[in-house]
Design brief:
Elements: E1 29-30, H1 32-36, E2 46-47, E3 64-73, E4 82-86, E5 97-106, E6 114-119, E7 122-128, E8 137-144, H2 149-152, E9 157-163, E10 175-184, H3 186-190, H4 199-213, H5 223-226, E11 239-243, E12 253-255, E13 262-266, E14 272-283, H6 296-301, E15 315-320, E16 323-328, E17 357-361, H7 366-369, E18 375-382, E19 388-398, E20 404-411, E21 416-424, E22 427-446, E23 449-468, E24 471-487, E25 493-513, E26 520-536, E27 540-557, E28 560-576, E29 579-588, E30 591-598
Parallel strand pairs: 1-28, 2-8
Antiparallel strand pairs: 3-10, 4-9, 5-8, 5-10, 6-7, 6-9, 11-19, 12-19, 13-18, 14-17, 14-19, 15-16, 15-18, 20-22, 21-22, 22-23, 23-24, 24-25, 25-26, 26-27, 27-28, 28-29, 29-30
The structure holds 2-acetamido-2-deoxy-beta-D-glucopyranose (NAG) (7 copies).
One 2-acetamido-2-deoxy-beta-D-glucopyranose is lined by residues 208, 212, 538-539.
C-alpha cells in the first residue's frame, strides 16, 4: 500500500522487460516537455472533447442552475472524496430536464485519472481525465441526469467527488473541477434529439405506442407510467437506492479479484412494480487492458513479471441472494494514457469523459424481493484481477399501494466459455469464445393490472489475441441482444423492447528498438465501435453508432511518450424518433483537420 503511494494510479509497478511487445505496458504519459516543444509554446489552453450528440438544452438558458462544487484536485491520493452540501433547485423552478455540467482544466504533466460523482452514494457520473499539456487543457461534460430526479430534488444531501491524483516534482498537473446542475423547462425537453421527452413529447410518443399495441382496456392503465419501457427512461424512477460502499474510499467498491464478492443488503418497498439496476464500471491496474491480457500459463511459462494476465475475458456479475441475476461485459473504454496517448488529444476515446453505465432489468426478481425482507445484492468480476471500481444504483418505480409479484421462469447460467491457447516461448495465439442465453419472467400485480414481464438475453463474446515477435494484435467482439416484453392478462403486448449492442475492437501494437538508447518505436492502431440500438414500438428506435479509427507512431522511453505522430478519425451517428445527428471528426497530430456535423439522417 505504502509503495503504491509513489506510483500513478493507473499502472502497476514498471517491469524490466517493459519494452518487449509481449509484456509492454500499454499505459503511458505524454511527456509535455518534448511533445509541446514541437508546437508553438505559450499557446492558449486547448479544448478537449469527446464526440457525442448535443443535448437538446445546450443552446437554451436553463430555468435555474445550482453550482455545487469548485475544487482543485492536487495531491489527493489515498484521501476520501471531496464532499459538499447539495442544494436542490428551488421549488419555484419549473423543470423537466436536468443536466449535470462537469468542467475541468489542468496544466503541466500528469497521468489520466478516474473520477466519480455521487449524491448520497448514488453515482451520477463516472469520468476520466485527459492528460494535460504545458499550455493547459480544458473540457466539459454535459450529462442528462433526469433519471436521477428523485435524488436531485431532495434537500440536505451531500455531493461527493473522488479523483485521486498525485502531484510531485515530475507530475505537476492539478485538476480543477467545477460541477453545476442545470435545470430546463419543458421547452428544452421537447426539441429534436431529446433523450428524455418532456410532458407533451412523451405523450405523443406513448399515444403512438398505444395505438399500435393495445386495444380495449387501455383506459384502465396509467399509460404514462406503465408504457414507458425500461429504455429510454421517459419517466424517472420514484426512488434510487445506492448499492455502493463507504464514503471514505469513494463510494465505489474496489474489486481485487474474481473471488471478491461485494454484497449489499437491501429491503425494497412493497409498492415496487419495476426495478432496474444500473451498473457503473471501470477497470484499472493490471486489468486496465483486460482484453489484451494473456493467460496465466503464458506468463508463468515465460517467467514474466507482469501482473497483466488471467486471460482476456471479464464479466461483471450481479447476484441476488447468491443467484446470478445479471451480467455485463463492459464496453472497453480506453483512457487517455492508453495504447498511444497521442491519439487522444484533443479528441478523447469513445466513452472516456462519460463512461457508459449498464442497465439490468430486475423486475422478474420482484417475486423474490417484495417479501419485506432484506436481500443481498452481490457484485463481482468473473476472471477479474486487480482492480475494478464498481457500484450500482437500484432504480425503483412505486405504485400507490402494495404490489404482488410471482416469479415464473428463471434461467441464468454462467457464460459458456471455450479457450484455445497455443504458444511457443513468447509467440502465441489465444482465442476465447463465450456464449450465454438467459431468461427470467414474472407476474407483477399492481394497480396497473396483472402484467407479465419477460426478459431474455443472448450474449456472445469472441477474442483473439496474437503475440508474434514484436507484434501484439487483438480482435475482440462483444455482442448482446436483450428483449423485454410486457404483456397483460389476455396476452396483449404492452411493451416490446429490444436492445442490441455490438462492440468490436481491434488493436495492434508493434514495438521496435528506437534510434536512441533506451527508447522504443511503437506503431499503434485502434479500431473500435460502440453500437447501441434500442427498438421499441413499431417504428420507434434509438440507434447509436460511434466508430474510431486511430493509427500512429510514438517514441517511448519507459512510460513516457517523447514524440510521435498520430491520427484519429471518428464517425458518430445517432438517430432517434425525433431526428438524427452525425459528426465526422478527423484529428491529425493533435490538430482537428476536419469536423463536420450533419443533422440529416444518413442511415
Ligand atoms: C526530449 O527529447 C530529447 C531528444 O529527443 C531527449 O534528449 C530528452 O531526454 C527528452 N526529454 C524528456 C523529458 O524525456
Ligand atoms: C464556483 O465559482 C463560481 C464563479 O466564481 C461561483 O459563482 C459559484 O458560486 C462557485 N460555486 C461554489 C459551490 O462555490
Ligand atoms: C471554475 O470556477 C472558477 C471560479 O470559481 C473559475 O475561475 C474557473 O475558470 C472555473 N473552471 C472551469 C474549469 O470552468
Ligand atoms: C434540512 O436540514 C436543516 C438544517 O439541518 C433542517 O432544518 C431541515 O428540516 C432539513 N430538511 C429536511 C427536509 O430534512
Ligand atoms: C410506421 O412506419 C410506416 C412506414 O413509414 C407507416 O406506414 C406506419 O403508419 C407507421 N406506423 C406508426 C404506428 O407510426
Ligand atoms: C483506418 O485508417 C487506416 C489509415 O488511415 C486505413 O487504412 C483503414 O482502412 C481504416 N479502417 C477503417 C475500418 O476505416
Ligand atoms: C469524414 O471526413 C473525412 C475528412 O473530411 C472524409 O474523408 C470522409 O469521407 C468522411 N467520412 C464520412 C463517412 O463522412
Amino acid at each position: 500500500m505504502v509503495l503504491l503511494l509513489f506510483l500513478p494510479l493507473f499502472f502497476a509497478i514498471p517491469i524490466q522487460s517493459s519494452l518487449m511487445s509481449s509484456s509492454s505496458q500499454p499505459h503511458f504519459v505524454r511527456s509535455t516537455r518534448n511533445i509541446s516543444g514541437n508546437k508553438m509554446s505559450e499557446a492558449a489552453p486547448q479544448q478537449y472533447f469527446e464526440v457525442t450528440h448535443p443535448l437538446p438544452s445546450d443552446d437554451i438558458t436553463p430555468a435555474c442552475s445550482v453550482s455545487v462544487l469548485n475544487h482543485s484536485f492536487g495531491y489527493t491520493y489515498g484521501s476520501p472524496p471531496v464532499s459538499v452540501d447539495y442544494t436542490p433547485p428551488p421549488a419555484t423552478c419549473k423543470w423537466s430536464l436536468a443536466v449535470l455540467e462537469f468542467r475541468a482544466e489542468c496544466k503541466g504533466e500528469q497521468y489520466d485519472r478516474i473520477a466519480g460523482v455521487w449524491i448520497d452514494g448514488v453515482e451520477l457520473l463516472r469520468t476520466s481525465t485527459a492528460q494535460p499539456t504545458e499550455d493547459g487543457i480544458f473540457w466539459s461534460v454535459r450529462k442528462d441526469v433526469t433519471r436521477y430526479s428523485s435524488i436531485i430534488t431532495k434537500p440536505n444531501l451531500t455531493l461527493a467527488m473522488m479523483l485521486e491524483n498525485i502531484v510531485n516534482d515530475e507530475y505537476t498537473g492539478v485538476y480543477h473541477v467545477n460541477i453545476s446542475f442545470l435545470f430546463y423547462s419543458d421547452e428544452a425537453a421537447r426539441v429534436p434529439l431529446s433523450i428524455i421527452p418532456g410532458e407533451s413529447g412523451a405523450r405523443t410518443l406513448n399515444r403512438k405506442l398505444i395505438s399500435v399495441k393495445t386495444h380495449g382496456n387501455v383506459d384502465q392503465l396509467d399509460i404514462n407510467r406503465v408504457l414507458n419501457p425500461l429504455y429510454p427512461y421517459d419517466k424517472p424512477a420514484d426512488l434510487v437506492i445506492p448499492i455502493s460502499g463507504a464514503l471514505d474510499e469513494g463510494f465505489w467498491f474496489r474489486i481485487q479479484d474474481e473471488f471478491h464478492v461485494q454484497t449489499t443488503n437491501v429491503q425494497i418497498s412493497q409498492k415496487t412494480y419495476k426495478a432496474v439496476l444500473e451498473l457503473y464500471v471501470s477497470f484499472h491496474g493490471d486489468d486496465e487492458f483486460w482484453y489484451m491480457n494473456p493467460p496465466d500459463s503464458y506468463v508463468e511459462t515465460n517467467h514474466l513479471t507482469t501482473g497483466r494476465a488471467h486471460g482476456a475475458y471479464r464479466e461483471v456479475l450481479v447476484t441476488i441472494d447468491g443467484q446470478l441475476a445479471g451480467a455485463v461485459i463492459p464496453f472497453p473504454v480506453i483512457f487517455t494514457g492508453g495504447i498511444n496517448p497521442l491519439f487522444w488529444e484533443p479528441v478523447v476515446s469513445i466513452g472516456a469523459f462519460d463512461l457508459p453505465s449498464y442497465d439490468i432489468d430486475l423486475t422478474p426478481f420482484l417475486g423474490l424481493l417484495l417479501d419485506n425482507k432484506k436481500h443481498s445484492i452481490g457484485l463481482q468480476v468473473a476472471d477479474g484481477i486487480s482492480f475494478w471500481l464498481i457500484d450500482a444504483n437500484l432504480h425503483l418505480w412505486l405504485d400507490h399501494s402494495n404490489v404482488n409479484a410471482e416469479m415464473l421462469k428463471y434461467k441464468f447460467p454462467s457464460m459458456e466459455i471455450q479457450r484455445v491457447s497455443e504458444f511457443v516461448r513468447l509467440d502465441g495465439k489465444f482465442e476465447i469464445d463465450g456464449e450465454r442465453s438467459s431468461k427470467a419472467s414474472a407476474w407483477v400485480h399492481s394497480s396497473y393490472g396483472i402484467l407479465k414481464t419477460k426478459v431474455t438475453e443472448k450474449a456472445k463474446f469472441k477474442s483473439k489475441l496474437k503475440l508474434e515477435g514484436t507484434m501484439k494484435e487483438l480482435k475482440q467482439r462483444i455482442k448482446k441482444t436483450t428483449k423485454i416484453k410486457i404483456t397483460d392478462e389476455i396476452g396483449q403486448v404492452i411493451v416490446n423492447l429490444e436492445v442490441k449492442i455490438n462492440y468490436p475492437l481491434k488493436i495492434s501494437i508493434d514495438t521496435q528498438p528506437g534510434l536512441d538508447k533506451g527508447t522504443s518505436l511503437m506503431t499503434t492502431k485502434v479500431e473500435q465501435k460502440r453500437s447501441d440500438r434500442f427498438f421499441y414500438g413499431v417504428n420507434n428506435s434509438r440507434v447509436l453508432s460511434h466508430k474510431q479509427n486511430c493509427t500512429g507512431l510514438m517514441v517511448v522511453k519507459g512510460n513516457s511518450v517523447l514524440s510521435g505522430s498520430s491520427d484519429n478519425r471518428q464517425i458518430y451517428n445517432y438517430q432517434d424518433e425525433f431526428g438524427c445527428y452525425s459528426r465526422n471528426v478527423t484529428v491529425v497530430d493533435g490538430d482537428v483537420v476536419a469536423d463536420r456535423t450533419l443533422t440529416t439522417c444518413v442511415v
